[in-house]
């Protein structure tokens, strides 16, 4: 395989510099910018998880302008019609030529970057169309299948869903990024930067953009260069991490495992490296599916010697003990083998949290052993009852 060219490596570092400048426009959003940058280099999609008012819309709109790309944004409700996203029927073609066609100009199928707020509120018709759009980059327009130019779709949600149908759609978003309100110590900085924006709007001026832009043409070149990064040196360690995640019953589909390689390669390219190293495996912490799995994935990755930031803070021992006690009560009422298997998985995750989360383990371990014994006893009873 041909390695990325020196010019591509130079542009990768230049893109990283632009992203660093972009971070200065927002308070406490460095991780979000890192995830967004990786997503566009991989031509993958991101779920932004967090409450309203955390700058999700502003972040993506500004990012699209920075890349000189076309943009479409919309807030979904349960009443949103497909035409609001994909375009209205071409009445003239229908009347004169008896041809059913959608006018997609300026709509989601014809843009580079899209942002859909409250994405899981979409109807089945909308989500099915989006599934084809994000997975195949195509849009069925009447009797024709059109190629979409979508680079990345960013979906925002207050929380992830439990519905199996929606989970299948959710899995098409490779990256996850949690956004919360800024910490107390950053409030003055938020007030200052936010007032500059509001004052500009009151004065009839567009808010001043900070930092250089990055050409869309250069972005497309970097996307091609991602495929040329050598992943050979890290693939054995990646496989080892994935096996550990399976042992802990962490949800990580084969599709995500394969696509994770793009994220690893993109991270190497951002740092001007033609060959991926152990540090590039740190991007795996952004590929969680379940919110509960986020902390465990971070712990597993760190346990394999990959440098990762602190991320989700370790829970207090009292919180873990409360979870163990709740699990112990639930085990006593389990009547289905599937629920018992889930109880075993929860016990395994709690055990890892105790061992790797620097918690005071004494009472927690004793309680957890009681839970595991209870699982075994219930398993034996279910088998006796046939």
Provide a brief overview of the structure.
It contains 15 helices and seven strands.
Helix content: 40-55%
State the distance separating the first and last CA atoms.
56 Å
Note the run of SSEs as H and E.
HHEHEHHEHEEEHEHHHHHHHH
Measured by DSSP, the beta-strand proportion falls in 5-15%
Give the overall average pLDDT. 86
Report the C-alpha radius of gyration, rounded: 24 Å
Dominant shape: globular
Uncertain ranges: none
| Beta strand count | 7
The main β sheet shows up as: 5 strands, parallel
What strand line-up does the widest sheet have? Answer: 2-3-6-1-7
What's the SSE blueprint?
Layout: H1 6-23, H2 30-42, E1 46-49, H3 56-66, E2 71-75, H4 82-86, H5 91-97, E3 113-117, H6 124-136, E4 138-141, E5 144-147, E6 152-157, H7 164-170, E7 175-178, H8 187-202, H9 216-226, H10 235-247, H11 254-270, H12 293-303, H13 317-331, H14 337-356, H15 362-385
């Amino acid at each position: 395989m041909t390695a990325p060219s020196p010019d591509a490596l130079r542009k990768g570092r230049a893109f990283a510099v632009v992203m660093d400048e972009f971070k200065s426009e927002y308070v406490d959003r460095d991780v979000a910018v890192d995830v967004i940058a990786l997503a566009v280099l991989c031509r993958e999609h991101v779920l932004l998880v967090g409450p309203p008012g955390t700058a999700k819309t502003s972040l993506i709109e500004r990012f699209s302008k920075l890349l000189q790309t076309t943009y479409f944004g919309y807030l979904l409700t349960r009443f949103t019609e497909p035409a609001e996203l994909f375009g209205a029927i071409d009445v003239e073609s229908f009347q004169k030529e008896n041809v059913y066609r959608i006018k997609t100009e300026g709509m989601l199928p014809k843009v580079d970057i899209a942002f859909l707020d409250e994405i899981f509120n979409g109807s089945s018709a909308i989500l099915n169309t989006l599934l084809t759009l994000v997975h195949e980059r195509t849009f069925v327009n009447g009797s024709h299948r059109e190629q979409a130019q979508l680079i990345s779709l960013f979906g925002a949600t207050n929380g992830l869903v439990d519905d199996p149908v929606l989970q299948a759609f959710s899995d098409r978003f490779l990256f996850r990024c949690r956004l919360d309100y800024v910490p107390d110590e950053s409030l003055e900085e938020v007030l200052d930067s936010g007032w500059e924006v509001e004052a500009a709007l009151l004065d009839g001026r567009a808010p001043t953009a900070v930092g250089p832009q990055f050409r869309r043409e250069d972005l497309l070149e970097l996307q091609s260069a991602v495929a040329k990064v050598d992943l050979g040196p890290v693939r054995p360690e990646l496989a080892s991490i994935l096996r550990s995640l399976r042992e802990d019953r962490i949800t990580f589909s084969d599709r995500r495992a394969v696509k994770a390689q793009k994220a690893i390669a993109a991270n190497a390219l951002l740092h001007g490296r033609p060959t991926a190293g152990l540090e590039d495996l740190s991007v795996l912490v952004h590929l969680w599916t379940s919110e509960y799995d986020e902390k465990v994935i971070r712990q597993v990755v760190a346990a394999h010697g990959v440098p990762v930031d602190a991320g989700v803070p370790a829970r207090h021992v009292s919180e873990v003990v409360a979870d163990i006690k709740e699990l112990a009560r639930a085990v006593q009422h389990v009547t289905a083998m599937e629920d018992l298997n889930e109880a075993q998985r929860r016990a395994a995750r709690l055990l890892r949290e105790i061992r790797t989360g620097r918690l005071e383990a004494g009472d927690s371990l004793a309680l957890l052993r009681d839970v595991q014994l209870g699982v075994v006893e219930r398993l034996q009873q279910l088998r006796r009852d046939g």
